[in-house]
Amino acid sequence: MTSWAGWRTLTASPTPLRSSTWGGESAMLVLDSRAAVAMIFERPFGEKIRGLMFRDEKVIAPEFYLAEVTHVIEKYVRGRYIDAASGVILLEKALHLVDDVIPMSELVQEAFTESLRLGHSSYDLFYLVLARRNAATLCTLDRRLQGLCLKNGVSCVCGLDVEGEPWTVRAESESSSAGRGSVSRSELEGAVATE
């Protein structure tokens, strides 16, 4: 078995949600809109995410999350994949996934400077910055953002290919309040394929 010093991983399972503490620290999750959409539409990855969440874990998102999930659901309604009534229900579900919405004004300067430093979209950096500031785990479907998190010591939920088999793991860095090393950063970065 591979020794992944610096990272703690949990694999998705159908077992009940785990305790929301690790080593006496409370766990926190930053949820992005893509992951939320997978959850509200009950897609397979959404169910895997639920399996990696801790019981009573606080879930936060930047306020941009509200615009993003609203836009996605609106596109499903306009494309006639779902009706308006279903759209309202899905929007409510998406809103209830998050405990606190953090004003973008609190994140904008750091998201801007980090987007320039890292050469990545400022939209995504709102989520990364929020996770880093709160020693939280970022939950996203975006492989590039997952790789960026791993390269910068930010815990994240990510998809991996393990010997040709897809896995979903919660990789928490040592710098995270919840992380307690078991995965090397370079091994985990190499396992996450970027687009």
Give a written overview of the molecule.
It is built from eight helices and nine strands. It starts with 6 loop residues before the first strand and ends with a helix. Helix 1 (33-40) packs across helix 2 (44-52), helix 1 (33-40) crosses helix 3 and helix 3 runs antiparallel to helix 4 (84-96). The chain is globular and about 40 Å long. It has one domain (7-191): Rossmann fold. 43% of the residues lie in helices and 21% in strands. A hairpin with a 2-residue loop joins strand 8 (156-162) and strand 9. It has a seven-stranded mixed sheet, sandwiched between helices. It has a two-stranded antiparallel sheet with strand order 2-3. The chain has helices spanning 33-40, 44-52, 64-78, 84-96, 108-118, 122-133, 143-151, 185-191, and strands at 7-11, 21-22, 25-26, 28-31, 58-62, 100-102, 137-139, 156-162, 165-173. Residues 1-24 and 176-183 have low confidence and may be disordered. The chain has 195 residues and is α/β, with parallel strands linked by helices.
